[in-house]
Design a protein that fits this description.
single chain, alpha+beta, five-stranded mixed sheet, four-stranded antiparallel sheet, 19 helices, globular
């Protein structure tokens, strides 16, 4: 059996001498570690293809069955600032690279655990910062040397996307991967660039996943809200990320009405303003309005009067896709854009009992495709949708950098082996820090083995032996160790590198936090709404009197 990388606690003689009191050993030296460990404890069972799912109850009371770290982190309402900082870093990684939220949380937690052990062993924080920065730079420099395959410019991406989309919530991985691979290849530009917004995803209840299909154009789930249900030629589209009505209808205001005539005038003024806003849309030749927000009935009546089709979308992501494809901005108010989006026609289409609104261009000039997903349950549709987005985002990353790394924890074990070998030869604080970094990297394949129901100690011993022998293609599989090249399990280089950089940034920030100070929340005082100054003196506001008596 190969020797494992020693942890920082086993090497106190190599660390910088410093005072270590009994009290320091009993409490956390890093004030953020407990919160980070709690957050990692929530995400750890969901890591990898064999990760478990959670019944997540959102703040709105909705119950969601999901195993995706992005969905769980986005729904959590965290109070601890350190946990929020790590959550934001993980969500930023998922937003910009499409994947890696759980990777960021788990590796950052492991690095913080090792950092506290180094501090307990006597390493000063200043030396910890410098040594961790050196280890991060060394790790990022080693990554390209581990890339052994690349996706060719004309190669079918199915074999790469399959490992990305093979999640624990998806049963028909092969079928969906073929659809995503075909859609991405069809939407790829002639110069080799790829815009993920050009491939839309629309989910419709009913049917089975095998009933999913590709549609030319861009389709969004929903139906027209007014009497106008289609525009068959010359569609000019405006996108609104606001209420389809008066701006801020619920804003606090007090209208001073002294007679019934004032009330009539006030109502007429509102109706005239609504009609003027809709008339401006018609004057700008807008005949389709897509809204992410509430739709007021009076404004919808005016839209029907001017022949404007009003479509309400369910998510901002659909509106962003339309904005990218149509080339028109999102409007925060009900005013016409400078240049409305143009397409051939907009119509409602029924797909196996589900309704979708399709934006279609001429056949030769279609700039977008839509992957219409079908499913019997909302949870199945949500899992398939998330897997499709992972595949689309992964293809976008591959178009920027086609290099691939061994997956299934093989890259982390290879990096741990190299850093451990270098750490044992280094003098000063860099040696133990490199060993601690290697120990943290080994926690990821250990988590994969644990979630797969394997004997963690046996799997890690076999992986250590293989990597010590120079076989860095050995990773964690369903029943034990596997050769990732033979099993076609890969990670994209650009996503892994970006995730490691994000982990290093947030770890160094949290490792230097000495104390968490929460500013006192002052109560908001209600303003005195009495317009008469004399009466205000005679009858002061209760808020002022209460604070005065204090």
């Amino acid at each position: 059996m190969a020797s494992r990388a020693p942890s920082a606690l086993e090497l106190p003689e190599r660390l910088w001498p410093g005072p270590r009191s009994l009290r320091a050993q009993e409490q956390h030296l890093l004030s953020s570690l407990a919160a980070v460990q709690t957050l990692a404890r929530v995400i750890r069972p969901c890591y990898g293809p064999h990760g478990r799912q959670k019944l997540l109850v959102t703040a709105r009371g909705e119950t969601v069955l999901t195993g995706f770290a992005t969905a769980i982190l986005g729904a959590l309402e965290l109070e601890h600032p350190a946990a929020r900082l790590l959550r934001d870093a993980a969500l930023s990684q998922a937003e910009h690279r499409g994947d890696g939220a759980a990777f960021v949380v788990l590796l950052a937690e492991a690095l913080l655990v090792q950092a506290e052990r180094l501090l307990l062993a006597g390493l000063p924080r200043a030396h910890l910062w410098e040594a961790y920065s050196t280890a991060t730079a060394e790790t990022l420099a080693l990554l390209p040397s581990l890339a052994i395959r690349s996706l060719g410019p004309l190669e079918d991406p199915f074999w790469v996307l399959h490992s990305v989309m093979n999640t624990h919530t998806l049963s028909q991985t092969n079928f969906l991967t073929k659809l995503v691979a075909y859609a991405c290849g069809a939407a790829k530009e002639l110069d080799g660039s790829f815009h993920p917004e050009r491939v839309g995803v629309c989910t419709l209840r009913g049917g089975h996943l095998e009933d999913s299909c590709l549609l030319p154009g861009l389709a969004v789930a929903g139906k027209p809200c007014g009497q106008v249900t289609k525009v068959l030629s010359g569609a000019r589209v405006a996108l609104f990320a606001c209420t389809f009505g008066l701006a801020n209808p619920n804003a606090p205001a007090s209208a001073r009405l002294t007679s019934p005539a004032d009330l009539v005038t006030f109502r007429k003024g509102s109706e005239q303003l609504l009609e003027k806003q809709v008339a401006q849309l018609a004057t700008a030749d807008v005949n389709v309005a897509v809204v992410w927000g509430e739709i007021e009935e009076k404004t919808l009546t005016q839209a029907d009067k001017y022949g404007i089709m009003v479509v309400q979308v369910k998510s901002r992501r659909e509106l962003v896709y339309l904005s990218e494809v149509l080339g028109t901005p999102l409007m925060p108010y009900l005013i016409p854009p400078v240049e409305p989006g143009k397409c051939q026609q907009v119509y409602m289409q029924e797909l196996g009992g589900g309704l979708a609104v399709v934006f279609e261009w001429e056949c030769l000039g279609t700039p977008a495709l839509t992957l219409v997903l079908r499913g019997t349950t909302t949870e199945a549709l949500r899992g398939a949708e998330q897997a499709a987005y992972h595949g689309i985002d992964a293809y976008c990353q591959l178009c920027q950098d086609p290099r691939l790394l061994p997956g299934a924890g093989a890259t982390e074990m290879a990096l741990a082996k190299i850093l451990s070998d270098k750490g044992t030869k280094m003098e000063g604080p860099n040696g133990p820090v490199f060993l601690a970094f290697a120990q943290a990297l080994q926690s990821l394949p250990a988590t994969l083995a644990e979630n797969a129901g394997l004997a963690v100690s046996n799997v890690m011993a076999e992986m250590n032996a293989a990597h010590q022998a120079g076989n860095f293609l050995i990773g964690v599989g369903d029943e034990g160790i596997i050769n990732v090249a033979q099993e076609e399990v890969w990670d994209t280089l650009i996503t892994k590198a970006q995730g490691l950089q994000a982990i290093a940034d947030v770890t160094l920030q949290l490792a230097t936090v000495d104390e968490i100070v929460v500013a006192k929340k002052h109560p908001t005082h209600q303003p005195d709404l009495n317009p008469n100054p004399k009466k205000a003196k005679e009858h002061p506001s209760p808020v002022g009197k209460k604070s005065f008596n204090k």
